[in-house]
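Input chain follows. Return C-alpha cells only.
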Amino acid sequence: MSRPTVAPAGVLPPPRLRRGVQLLIGLVLYALSMALLVDSALGNMPWDVLSEGVARRTGLSFGAVTLVISALVLACWVPMRQRPGVGTVANVLVIGLLADPFLALVAGVGDLAVGWRVVVAAAGIGLNGLATALYVGAGLGPGPRDGLMTGLVARTGRPVALVRTAIEVAVVLSGIALGGTFGVTTVAYALLVGPLVHVLLPPLRIAPAGPPHPVRVDATVVRPAPPEQGRTTVV
C-alpha cells in the first residue's frame, strides 16, 4: 500500500526576497548609471536623448519626463496584450523617482576635463550593463521598453535586432530634434552594453526551481515527480 505523498522540505523556488533585493539593487544602479552618462555630457543612452530633449522643451525635470515616458511606453503594452510583472512596474517607478536625486548627487561631472568625463562615461556604461543584468536576472518582468520591443516583434514577425534598432533610431532622432544630447557615448553604449549584459547575465540569473534532488523524510526517500506531473511521489 502506497503511503501519502509528502512535499519535501526545501523544494521551493528561489526566495522571493532574493529576487526582490536583486531587482531593487539593479534598478538603483541603473538610475545611477543614467545620471553618470547624462552629467558626463558626452552623449546619453538612446531613450535618455529623448527624455532630455523633452525636459528641455517642457521645463519638466529629467526624472519626471523619464517617469512619464516610461508610463506611456507601458501603456503601449495594452493593445499588444503584453503582461507586465512586478519588476516592470518597479522599473518605471524606481528609475523615474531616483533619476533627479542621482543627477543632483553627481552634479558637476560635466565641468570636469574631457579625460575625466570619458572615465565617468565608461563607468556609467559598465554600471548600466551590471544593473541591467541584475534586474533582468531577477526574473520579475522586463522593463517597459524591452516589453515594447518584444510586443512589436510578436505583432510584426520582424527580427528582434531590426525592431530594436528601428525603435532606438526613431527615439534618438526625436530626442536630437528636441535638443537631447547625442554623442560618442550614445554610440559606445549601443555597441557595448549588449555584450556586457551577455557576459554578466548568466551568473546573475536566478533560475526557476528545477527538479530537486531526492530528500529523506522519516527514513523514506522522497523522489520528486517530473515537473509536468506537478506532484511528488514516495518510493
